[in-house]
Amino acid sequence: MRRYLEQKRAASGVEINVTHVAMKAASLALREMPALNGHIVGGSFFPHSCRDVSYLFPLQSEGGAFASICVANADKKPVGALAAELRERVER
Questions:
Q1: Which residue, 30, 62, 65, 73, shows the most beta carbons closer than 10 Å to its own?
Q2: What pTM value is reported for the model?
């Protein structure tokens, strides 16, 4: 994993960590297993067409509060792009 992270950081110029890889893996799992990605209404299952993943980010200045940050269609984004988007949204 360490070698993979170092290679991805060097290739993308973005700080990539295990969280970003886990988010990417979760989005790929949702794509591979669509029965895990949907909602039930009136007893019928409706699959989602996108693989969005969220990260629960701790807010240091808010006394234990968290913010949920969603990255849309994470399965279609390289891990470097996913990491860059997450960082930008956390900073915002």
A1: 30
A2: 0.81
Q: Please give the structure tokens belonging to residue 53.
A: 């993943």
Distance of CA 67 to the CA centre of its chain: 14
47-83 per-residue burial string, b: 16 or more CB within 10 A, e: under 16: eeeebebebeeeeeeeeeeeeebebeebbebebbbbb
Domain ranges of the chain: 2-91
Structural tokens at position 77: 């984004």
Which tens digits make up the pLDDT trace of 8-36? 999 989 999 999 999 999 999 999 998 99
Task: Report the CATH architecture of 2-91.
Answer: 2-Layer Sandwich (3.30)
Which residues, other chains included, contact 88 with Cβ-Cβ below 8 Å and sequence gap of 6+?
Answer: none
